[in-house]
Write a structure and sequence with these properties.
Length: 82
């Protein structure tokens, strides 16, 4: 098969140009977009790094602060009784 025929049969990019017409470039192998419309970009990094907690508002830290607050209240009550 001549190279021109192979090129004509390759899947095309699924993006639309700014004029609203479909892009006519061939898609990157294994992708749905051409190199101009993000076919070579691997995408966003894996995992959600924006939801990472530093520990101050984690469940363990909140439970620890609640327990400390309860101990302090009980201590104040004990001192008032004495």
């Amino acid at each position: 098969m001549p190279p021109v025929d192979r090129l004509n049969k390759t899947p095309r990019c699924g993006a639309k140009t700014r004029s609203g017409h479909p892009c006519r470039q061939p898609a990157v192998r294994g992708k749905r977009r051409c190199r101009m419309h993000g076919g070579t970009n691997p995408g966003a990094p894996k995992g959600n790094r924006n939801a990472w907690k530093h520990g101050h508002w984690g469940a363990e830290a909140i439970a620890f602060r609640c327990a400390m607050r309860l101990l302090i209240r009980n201590g104040h009550k004990l001192i008032d009784e004495i």
